């Protein structure tokens, strides 16, 4: 990110496991994971939260914008990256999502990428995306868009919901349902464009 040029982490890529991580912090750089709603609460290995970094490469602040600077960098110099992730016992960091993409369910923060990853492990699924939609009871609820593999036995919405429910906490279940689609909107870099799915959801909701 621009605020921490030129780098914070370096991955060795010495194995598949290392390939999935952004690596440990580089020399003279510190990194930690904190509660996204309270940065004074620091998490340990395997716990998912917001990644913060600190080092000589972190910017001094935004030009003529002290408010934005204060919202991004703590008085102790910790830069809030906006990335959701965790680290392992080797201090290797993994990024799983962005804070702005989190689904807020009953006060809990649910990373859509976590649910997408689980859905993609289902043998009938080619691809999946998850967004948060309004819910009167929980505030927001996860809604899944799933692309099925035509060469595999068909799977139902109930199959998908059960598959996820067996692997996550109750508040992370895809309670808003599953929509089967032929493809997912993606950027040129292959990133899922969740905002387009949210637009599609709103249009569908408006016509009902």
UniProtKB/TrEMBL annotation:
<dbReference type="Pfam" id="PF13193">
    <property type="entry name" value="AMP-binding_C"/>
</dbReference>
<dbReference type="GO" id="GO:0016405">
    <property type="term" value="F:CoA-ligase activity"/>
</dbReference>
<dbReference type="Pfam" id="PF00501">
    <property type="entry name" value="AMP-binding"/>
</dbReference>
<dbReference type="InterPro" id="IPR042099">
    <property type="entry name" value="ANL_N_sf"/>
</dbReference>
<feature type="domain" description="AMP-binding enzyme C-terminal">
    <location>
        <begin position="114"/>
        <end position="191"/>
    </location>
</feature>
<keyword id="KW-0576">Peroxisome</keyword>
<comment type="similarity">
    <text>Belongs to the ATP-dependent AMP-binding enzyme family.</text>
</comment>
<dbReference type="InterPro" id="IPR000873">
    <property type="entry name" value="AMP-dep_synth/lig_dom"/>
</dbReference>
<dbReference type="InterPro" id="IPR025110">
    <property type="entry name" value="AMP-bd_C"/>
</dbReference>
<dbReference type="GO" id="GO:0005777">
    <property type="term" value="C:peroxisome"/>
</dbReference>
<protein>
    <submittedName>
        <fullName>Putative 4-coumarate--CoA ligase</fullName>
    </submittedName>
</protein>
<dbReference type="InterPro" id="IPR045851">
    <property type="entry name" value="AMP-bd_C_sf"/>
</dbReference>
<feature type="domain" description="AMP-dependent synthetase/ligase">
    <location>
        <begin position="1"/>
        <end position="63"/>
    </location>
</feature>
<keyword id="KW-0436">Ligase</keyword>
